[in-house]
Write a structure and sequence with these properties.
The protein is mostly beta strands. Helix content is 14%, strand content 40%. The protein binds N6-Methyladenosine 5'-triphosphate.
Length: 161
């Protein structure tokens, strides 16, 4: 049995820098990641993405400034959970970067991404995102969060999601 969970992941860009957050609790604790979480009942993806961004980083974004960059499916085979991560980027936002209970934000140069302290799949799709490619991925993880299978492709347009 699979349990399918819709999530969002927002990447904030400022010129050659990206804002990542150190996850302080829960899934992915101890790793740098974009900002996001589970979509709530009745919420559309971009509204959920903007809400999680605000909760975790203090930044506010208009949903019209969230651009789709990729769709990633993470299957945790042990639990049967499949996370559908809808990845967005934004270059326009407002507010002050603020540490939350969940995340400690920090700017990184896109040439100096801390991949060794991130989910192992990130090293494969971050470069696609930096090249402004649209991508689709399906990755499988063991109970120890080790990736053992990966499919990743570049798409021409969002309709291919
Ligand atoms: C397996 N490889 C992975 N690679 C890159 N990113 C990954 C990931 N697996 C999960 N993610 C992201 O991690 C966040 C989890 O969110 P998560 O903290 O569980 O959600 P939410 O804030 O709703 O949690 P609470 O239940 O409220 O604590 C969410 O953005 C999701 O896209």
């Amino acid at each position: 049995m699979h349990r399918y969970v819709q999530c969002t992941l927002v990447q904030i860009f400022n010129d050659q820098k990206i804002l990542l957050g150190m996850k302080k609790r829960g899934l992915g604790v101890g790793m740098w990641n974009g900002f996001g979480g589970k979509v709530e009942a009745g919420e559309d993806l971009k509204t959920a993405a903007a809400r999680e961004l605000k909760e975790e980083s203090g930044l506010e974004v208009l949903t019209s400034n969230l651009m789709e960059v990729g769709l990633l499916l993470f299957e945790f085979v042990n639990s049967g959970v499949v996370l559908e991560a809808n990845v967005f980027r934004a270059v326009e936002y407002k507010g002050v970067v603020t540490e939350s209970e969940e995340m400690r934000p920090c700017w990184f140069d896109i040439k100096d991404i801390p991949y060794k302290d991130m989910w192992v799949d990130d090293v494969d799709w971050f470069p696609l995102m930096f090249k402004q490619k649209l991508f689709y991925g399906f990755m499988k993880f063991t109970e120890k969060n080790e990736m053992f299978s990966q499919e990743l492709k570049v798409l021409e347009n969002v309709e291919e999601f």
